[in-house]
Write a structure and sequence with these properties.
Elements lengths: L20 E7 L6 H11 L3 H5 L1 E7 L8
Parallel strand pairs: 1-2
């Protein structure tokens, strides 16, 4: 059985358009900000059409709430 997750975006917005690609990234706090570099690379190396057909989902996996 498939369960659909319910969430509220903290950045961006939920699109009503269907996407062809979902990119999921999980991360934890690190001194060096690898997440920013990864997102910057994904966005900068994708053309406009690729960005329109994709959604990026980020899971902040820290258990320490102060680091989220």
């Amino acid at each position: 059985m498939i369960h659909r997750a319910s969430f509220s975006p903290i950045a961006g917005h939920r699109s009503k358009d269907k996407k062809l690609l979902a990119i999921g990234i999980s991360t934890v706090y690190r001194e060096e900000n690898y997440l920013h570099k990864t997102l910057e690379s994904l966005v900068n190396e994708s053309d406009v059409e690729e960005r329109k057909d994709a959604v990026i989902i980020i899971y902040l996996a820290d258990t320490d709430q102060e680091k989220k």
